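Our platform keeps sequence and structure together, in a single record for each protein. Such a record has a labelled line for the sequence and another for the backbone structure tokens. The tokens are whole numbers drawn from a learned vocabulary of local backbone shapes. The remainder of this section carries one protein's record, kept here as part of the documentation:
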Amino acid sequence: MPRARNRVASRSRRKRILNMAKGYWGSRSKIYTIAKNSVEKGLQYAYRDRRQKKRQFRRLWITRINAGARLNGVSYSKLMGALRKADIELNRKVLADLAMHDPDTFAKVAEHAK
């Protein structure tokens, strides 16, 4: 009697990997073993970059706040220290948005912090 291999589960497992590899170039989307390696690496990058995205956005916000602060004659660290002392609880995301899209309001916040 031949050995039963549960072909249904095997096929669905391979199909899931090949569906995840759709859009990959060449054999990365066609051949199961190569597609499997590409998908695994892609999932590793996705996991890592979900954490790196948070760091990169924080760096971007700090850069924008620093640029806006220097236009108002104060450095980033002095501005953040003054905001903390003045009990102004605006996070970096909001401050960066103000510095980019509403410089007048950001200038008022910076003056109030001084």
In short: The mean pLDDT is 93. The longest helix spans residues 32-71. The radius of gyration is 26 Å.
